[in-house]
């Protein structure tokens, strides 16, 4: 569905995206996981044609996304990181405006708005101005808006950043149900749990480069399913093991603060980059 080849974006001396290669299949839920400044937003902006690329290529179902190419534009729905809803308009009007921009006939527009407000549990706030909405409600409305024209590929840039855990879980459920209905999703995040829970495959991104790629389980297997965390020489160190028994044997020889736990994507990220996703 989405093929990215040798994609580069430079801002002066800064290489925000550095020769990125990536293929995302139809119906896949793919996550770009990385710390602030890794180049995730820039990648999504290039796919959605908001930022021109320096070099390389992007193709969606064999077509290059071009601002003026309606057939490709129709295939993509975008949920940007920052709220760009019309705050002086109601939820309904925001969706209505999007439907008009995409030339959806009136009857279809109305039906879709009702459906999406219900899906995002915003039906009872349809007539309220967006400026009265909570952060979570705004984010849900942005997802509804991106889905208005029935895109085949949904791009989400940090969809739950700044939201409290309960609202975050609600949004995860919405995204899971979209994915189980066959929508292709590309999400960027710096939340480990978000990537682990939602994504079929994850690309670890650091300093504009894709460092590792695979399913969360496969990536974790690469480093070892269990980790012993211990404090030595003034710093927290980690050793990885394939089995809990091996981890226990190693841990039993250590003194002081020692913890055995299952490995996660944060461990994978640290192992391959020497940095934390939260850095
Ligand atoms: N418009 C711009 N002008 C100059 N530099 C930019 C611009 N946009 C991004 N950058 C730089 O490109 C690099 C990648 O930024 P990008 O926003 O893509 O990272 P990110 O992984 O999405 O992080 P975040 O989650 O903080 O947005 C950073 O070094 C950033 O400072």
From TrEMBL:
In terms of PROSITE patterns, this protein maps to: ABC_TRANSPORTER_1, ABC_TRANSPORTER_2
**EC number(s) given by UniProt:** 3.6.3.-
Q: Provide the alphabetized UniProt keywords.
A: ATP-binding, Hydrolase, Nucleotide-binding
Task: State a single Gene Ontology molecular function.
Answer: ATP hydrolysis activity
Q: Which domain of life is it from?
A: Bacteria
Q: Which InterPro entries match?
A: AAA+_ATPase (IPR003593), ABC_transporter-like_ATP-bd (IPR003439), ABC_transporter-like_CS (IPR017871), P-loop_NTPase (IPR027417)
Describe the location of the ABC transporter domain by residue ranges: 2-232
Catalytic class of the enzyme: hydrolase
User: Which PANTHER family does the entry mention?
Assistant: LINEARMYCIN RESISTANCE ATP-BINDING PROTEIN LNRL
The name this protein carries in UniProt is Nod factor export ATP-binding protein I
